[in-house]
Design a protein that fits this description.
The chain is mainly alpha-helical and about 130 residues long. The chain has 2 domains: about 45 residues, no CATH class; about 80 residues, no CATH class. It is about 40% helix and about 10% strand. The chain has 5 helices and 3 strands, in the order αβββαααα. A 3-stranded antiparallel beta sheet has the order 1-2-3. Strand 1 and strand 2 form a beta hairpin. It starts with 6 loop residues before the first helix and ends in a 6-residue tail after the last helix.
Length: about 130
């Protein structure tokens, strides 16, 4: 997709976003109801329904710590016992945000990156089709 975009509008949209039972992304911006359905979402992010099923097989070349270290603002930073989003680059933090809130939602601890999250990020960055 090409054209003009407005970063502040995008920020407000995702800040107010929620997912309905059909998987549509809903938001209200400036009193205007906005809906991104599954078909539009797939077109925007360039995904199709094919690809590797993440739980059926492991992703080739994936290493949890190398993937996480590559996402850090300071790759020489000493790693803790848990992997947090605080030291990630803005782009990677946004990707993890989309994964944990929209693509593979969970109810708590969005500040911690899980192995599943890292596998999805690795697949996206390596252009591996995942389902």
């Amino acid at each position: 997709m090409k054209g003009t975009f407005y970063p502040k509008l995008v920020k407000v949209f995702y800040t107010c976003a929620r997912v309905d039972l059909e998987g549509n992304l809903l938001s209200i911006v400036n009193g205007v109801d906005m809906v991104i359905d599954v078909i539009v979402w797939k077109e925007v992010v360039g995904l199709d329904m094919g690809g590797v099923r993440k739980y059926d097989e492991t992703v080739d070349g994936y290493n949890m710590m190398q993937t996480y270290s590559g996402m850090l603002l300071d790759p020489t930073r000493r790693l803790r016992n848990w992997l947090g989003v605080g030291g990630l680059t803005t782009e990677d933090r946004m990707i993890v945000y989309l994964i944990t809130y929209i693509l593979k939602p969970r109810s708590s601890n969005h500040a911690q990156v899980t192995d599943d999250d890292l596998q999805i990020v690795y697949g996206l960055k390596s252009e591996i089709q995942m389902n």
